[in-house]
Amino acid sequence: MQFRDIGVLAAVIMIVAMLVIPLPPWLLSFLIIINITLALLVLLTAMNMQEALQFSIFPSLLLLLTLFRLGLNVSTTRAILSEGDAGGVVDTFGTFVTGGNIVVGLVVFVILIIIQFIVITKGSERVSEVAARFTLDAMPGKQMSIDADLNAGMISETEARMRREKVSNEADFYGAMDGATKFVKGDAIAGIIIVIINLLVGMIIGVAQMGLPFAEAATQFSRLTVGDGIVSQIPALLISTATGIVVTRAASEGNLGSDITKQLLGQPKLLYVAAATIALLGLATPINDVVTIPIAAALAAGAYFMSRKPEEDPEELFEMEEEVETEGMKSPENVVNLLNVDPIEFEFGYGLIPLVDAQQGGDLLDRVVMIRRQLALELGLVIPVVRIRDNIQLQPNEYRIKIKGNEMARGELLLDHYLAMSPGGDDSIEGIDTIEPSFGLPAKWITEAVKEDAEIMGYTVVDPPSVVSTHLTEVIRANAADLIGRQETKQLVDHVRETYPILVDELTPTPLSIGEIQKVLAKLLNEHVSIRNLPIIFETLADYSKYTSDVDLLTEYVRQSLARQITNQYSAAGQSLKVLTVSGKVEKLIADNIQQTEQGNYLSLDPSISQNILESIAREVERVALLDQSPIILCSPAIRMYLRQITERYFPQIPVLSYNELEASIEVQSVGVVDI
Asked: What angle do CA 633, 638, 641 make, to 5 degrees?
């Protein structure tokens, strides 16, 4: 236990001792000055804080100071009634305040009681109740806002933890202040009762026990009572004022003094108006001009000097900020931080700020949270935090999506419009022509006035936040393979290890390394195959990695083990799977040009043949699209990955499946043949 902890404990024990042990007058005078000093220090601290939590000990301190003051009241009452002397401080205050007139002293004391009890204490109590209720009511919303900022990548985990702790501390603080104000109220009531006891009982003791004449007893005990009441109520008034400041203080950039100067005296025009009003009051009324004219002159002079104060040039401020940033970037730590690349970034122009700002009704942060959850369930991959930030280099209504620092997509929104897409190519509705960013379909930006008509005509109408959400989802889905590295793979392996430790131990670090597992998972994601069923994937890898370490072959084995999943992904229940088959001629051409090397197999096909195959696929895809069907290419297992290599660049969205990747129960219907 540290020395200051022992000091606080000793002070509490001393306060308790004051209630039962008589104290000499000189010690009472010393403790009374200490009481006034502590009260003044508390008031100054309350005025100098920027937010309530900077004085978080105030509720507990308020209880201790109230107990200390009541202990002093008990000690001075004991000294007044038993000895007729409570020390020089009490006697001096009584003589000075009353000015030889006891009635004046009593009136001053009553006024102090009224100010403290009815004005300050009552107001502080009400504000504390309201602040406590509002803080508790706002707590869930603040927690959700912190979670949304964390999920959107706007804050770090450490900052989120600090914000949550601050929200919890605020609730505890205002809850404690709600009860602490009752101490102040009770202290004021106790002060009134103690004064009445000192006055009445003191005169009785003075006459009955000390043998003093009634007039002398009334004068002496009235003086001591008023002095005791004043020295007790002055610190109580300071503490009550500090309580009011603490519970009414809103967070700001400065303390109370600087805020008052900035907000109350910071507008020269208003000071001129006040000066003119005071001057007119002195000239047009019998009020003494000697009082009003100097005040008006002081206000006018203050307004004049404030209006002449040069305003800070925005360009100079920008240069200063730029200089500060430049200085900060000189440190090695900041340079290293600049090297970090966010996995996913969403940047937007200033015109799209309402999409993100919750106070303006923006819900993009919540949508991003749902996108990450949706894609995690769909792909089996933990989607990294999406870093959302504004970018003044973009057009006001423009946004862009970046993966690993590279721009993958860009779009433009009209926040006061809706995006309408016609299912049949109908172009009769009035609007601004555009392209739907996710799938490249022709669309129009329409106003609220024609939205209902567009829906009646069969248009698909979506709002700007939905457009952005869909675009972001499709970009992440298309680039999921780029988001899984060795670190992410290690996390997935550790997750599976918790449930299947033997399986993981058999798979890695031998025969497969984390890097080889990562390549298999990336290849699956690259062809939109979910890796959520990791146990089956790892079982297959453990079985076949004994015979080959070729990542391409291992990926094909995994795809075949996921046949049920792949079948369900591309076929609807009870319906046949419509596919484009590959002719025997094309399959033979591809198979004959597979070259086997020590580093693995690769396709060595004449470019003209590859071009003919792509042209055939393009014709069949166009024909099938007219039938409102999604094309799927079906081929033999031996050439599947090589045919995918041919189509990947030009038809990345068209899946290439092998016969072994479909369940035997599924009905397959050929709607076209790829041939040359």
From this structure: 55
345 shares its domain with 271? no
pTM value is 0.56
Could you report the per-residue pLDDT of 257-292, keeping only the tens digit for each? 666 677 776 777 887 888 888 888 777 777 666 777
**pLDDT tens digit sequence for 193-204:** 887 887 788 778
d(CA 86, CA 291): 42
* Residues 442 and 516 occupy one common structural domain: no
Using CA atoms, how far apart are residues 456 and 213, in angstroms rounded to an integer? 103
221 shares a domain with 72: yes
The sign of the CA dihedral 227, 232, 234, 235 is: positive
One domain, residues 620 and 657: yes
Give rounded-to-5 percent helix, strand, coil for the chain.
65, 10, 25
Exposure class string for 81-106: b at 16+ Cβ within 10 A, else e: beebebbebbbebbeebbeeebeebb
Residue 479: strand, helix, or coil: coil
Kindly report, residue by residue over 494-518, the tens digit of the pLDDT.
999 999 999 999 998 889 999 999 9
**Most confident among 113-117, 149-153, 316-320 (mean pLDDT):** 113-117
End-to-end CA distance of the chain: 89
The CATH code of the domain that includes 430 is 3.40.30.60
**Same domain, yes or no, for 495 and 521?**
yes
Looking at the fold, whether 503 and 635 belong to one and the same domain comes out as no
On whether residue 318 sits in a domain, the answer given is no
Q: How confident is the model at residue 125 (pLDDT cuts 50, 70, 90)?
A: confident
The domain of 493 spans: 484-561
- What is the spatial distance between Cα 465 and Cα 470, in angstroms, rounded to a whole number? 9
Task: Determine the 3-state secondary structure of 407 from DSSP.
Answer: strand
Count: domains in the chain: 5
Give the whole-angstrom CA distance, residue 577 versus residue 274.
84
Q: Are 378 and 569 in contact (CB under 8 A)?
A: no
State the DSSP string of 35-56: HHHHHHHHHHHHHH-SSGGGGT
How far is the CA of 273 from the CAs of 22, 206, 270, in angstroms? Answer: 59, 60, 5
**DSSP labels, 55-98:** GTTHHHHHHHHHHHHHHHHHHHHHHHHHHS---HHHHHHHHHHH
Among 177, 512, 601, residue whose Cα is nearest residue 504:
512
Residue 474: both structure tokens together: 């499709």
Whether 512 maps to a domain, the answer reads yes
Collapsing DSSP states into helix, strand and coil, what is residue 344?
A: strand
Tokens, residue 261? 């100067």
Q: Give the rounded distance of the alpha carbon of 100 from its chain centre.
A: 62
